[in-house]
Amino acid sequence: MPVSIVSNLSSQFAQSAIQLRSQNVIDGTQRLASGKRVFTASEDAASTAVASGLRIENAALSKAQINAAGAVSMLQIADGSLAQVGDIAIRMKALAIQASTGNYGPDERAALDLEFQALKSEIGRIAADTEFNGVKMLAGKPAFDLQGAHDYTADGVVGLSFEQNVLSSDAVFRYSYDSTTEQMTLSRVDGGVASSQTIDLTGLLDNVAGTAQNLASGETLPLYFTALGVTLTLGTAFDRTADILPTVTDTSGADISLTTPTFAPAATSLSLEGVAALQALGAPYVATSGDIVFDTLTDGAAVTLGGVAGLRYAVNGGAVGADGADSADLVGGASYVDVYITTASGTELLGRLDVGAVATTGPTDGTVTVPLGQGIIGADYTGLTGDTLLTYKVGSGIVAGQDLITVNVAAVTVAALGLDTTVITDQFSADGAITQMTSVLTQINQVRAQLGAQQARLEYVGRNIATVNENNEGARSALIDVDVPAAITELTNDQAMMEVGVSMLGQANRLPQILLDLLRQG
Questions:
Q1: What phi and psi, each to the nearest 5 degrees, are found at residue 468?
Q2: Strand, helix or coil for residue 73
Q3: d(CA 7, CA 1)
Q4: Which of the listed residues 242, 319, 341, 401 has the most CB atoms within 10 Å of its CB?
């Protein structure tokens, strides 16, 4: 390579080396000052993505750990109150045993009953006042008995429960499922303003069962219709490819023509009385599916729906017919039939059967099947004796049993314990009170055992979350945080090499001057 006075390659090499080492010194100083190894995704895209996910997960789990600790404290308060109720119940049983002996007369038993009733009132006070952050745990919640107009298990529904904080009286609902959109809709249909909620099942089913798969044996999927206060749980019999929709089956016969009949369920008119009346229809009502098979009757000129005891018809907006009577003639223009159920309080609209244009060419009768009761469920309010459902969020997702832990706390009110009318004013009543108090003590012990088990579980949950957080943080640190000793070594090396580069740059810059001196001397 020629020695040139025009180009100083040595200086350029030295400058490049100094720039590289200078940038390394800046980066090393930044890493040590901040404690981070990676500042932008361009430096290490994979580590940045994984560390970001771990950071988000840890933030959620930190809150879940706090939730678990709060849940333990909450259940400890409930357990402490139950311990007091248990002590009171023991004293009440002792009083009942004392009053049942023949050593006492009416006056002595009356005196014993004064204490017995006072202690009973104290149980009620403890149940009403035991709370955590405003949540009453022992005071009971609205309880409901389930009524159905059909066998909902045939649709793959394995469980139904009602949210006491939302519902406080009788309610009737209807659910439906569209397999095309994979959406389940629940609507309240017991009067007033119609309300409904729709849940998209695609992601939920895919998460539990697998993409496009049905639930396998043992798998369940709870659907929380929180706006309506209903939890509907699906099981293995649920078929995500099969509709649960009001589909009419037209088998009207060779001589009768109905133009694509459809059924539109009533939106707001069905009470628990109506549900019970549907259950009591008997034949031709199919209790499994909620279908009813209507006879389509013809004489070759007119077509009517056959009468069904318990049902009434109104054709094309006309007057409602008598119970069990045939409908008016359906022939002549577009026809629809409003179907009513007869209850103890009157009549209730079940829905409208639109039969379109109706024609007949002969006397052969037929049938048409209509899903009057499919999807109908009723919540029959029975009083403030239900368990208090406590749901604790202990994960970063929404999967029940993993991210959500539910605890049922039985009510210990006087009514829930069956002590409303319990007295010990005579020997016979005292004997009954002994039996009742034995049952009460058993119930309290069972509740305490359940709460203790859930407390222990939540304590383990909290410790497990702490372990997961610790390991996640270690993984995140390994990916994104700076290794201080290694960084110091690299920084020291870069600083030394930068000094060498500066020195060599000075030497390289002297080369043109040496060449000029050589020229002058020549």
A1: -60, -45
A2: helix
A3: 11
A4: 341
